[in-house]
Amino acid sequence: MRMRIRKAVFPVAGMGTRFLPATKASAKEMLPVVDKPLIQYAVQEAVSAGAQELIFITGRSKNSIMDHFDKAYELEAELAAKGKGKLLELVQEVLPPGVTCIFIRQAEALGLGHAVLCAAPAVGDEDFCVILADDLIDGKLRPCLAQMQRVYQEYGTSVIATQRVPKSEISGYGVVDVKPVGEGIGEIRRIVEKPKAEDAPSDLAVVGRYILTPRIFKLLERTPRGAGGEIQLTDAISMLLQEQTVLSYQFEGTRYDCGSKLGYLKANVEYGLKHPELADDFRKYLTGLTDDLLKPDSAKK
């Protein structure tokens, strides 16, 4: 049986233009869902699957991510002095013991494939995972990457998270054509980046979780620029299919596209309704909203 994936790559160099001006001077991955930034949810998911080395591919204005996972001596000392034990514990749990961080600067914004390629020196010849923090996934009983880890251990090959999406949204995703090999698991025969709905091979879309073999790095080195003039990870995976088995896994859980404002708002509402400190009061507040308050015209009255 394969070992656990030890290294997790987080491409966090994107500009986050859909959230301007909030992301003008701060990373979109630091946007909070209730009381934790998106990147922390992603890190916790990786650690739950056994990751011990976290590799962040960063860009300009991303220092807040580095600061978030650094030790805050002054803050911890102040919380300890004031007897705020619970808050101190929260701060100290941001980076679990035994987990290390590596930060690599992506000098040019050349796409997801290029960002993953930047991680090659830190990953070496190990299988590894890639997590896109703005795809927040509530795995319900088990985190998404931990689910994928089980598939990886059973089949010993690359695994990509997928979900079925409406036809109207197909053009925003990489889409796969699969041969079923198990419950929710399929061998990918073809992968197409952002096809038109009429050209899509299926309604099964790739979301931001990947377990990959290091062979992908050699393929990325010779991957030409594709959609948007960027080096697409999807194009390299398409080449990988010619050499190795790559599996699609339909995870159990709910995905929130926090790269969009609506998806981000949905995540805050639904995570707020599960928050141990806020859930009851927040539910009462939402229940108390009248239909008039929810109508767009009410703001004009």
TrEMBL record:
The cross-references to Gene3D superfamilies, in alphabetical order and at most eight, read: Spore Coat Polysaccharide Biosynthesis Protein SpsA, Chain A
Question: GO biological process annotations for this chain's record?
Answer: UDP-alpha-D-glucose metabolic process
Q: What class of enzyme is it?
A: transferase
The UniProt record lists the Nucleotidyl transferase domain at: 12-271
Keywords, alphabetical: Nucleotidyltransferase, Transferase
In the record, what terms sit under GO molecular function?
A: UTP:glucose-1-phosphate uridylyltransferase activity
The reactions it catalyses are: alpha-D-glucose 1-phosphate + UTP + H(+) = UDP-alpha-D-glucose + diphosphate
What does the record give as EC number? 2.7.7.9
**Bilayer-crossing regions:** none
Summary of the function given for this chain in its UniProt record: May play a role in stationary phase survival.
The UniProt similarity line reads: Belongs to the UDPGP type 2 family.
This protein is called what? UTP--glucose-1-phosphate uridylyltransferase
Its source organism is Stenotrophobium rhamnosiphilum
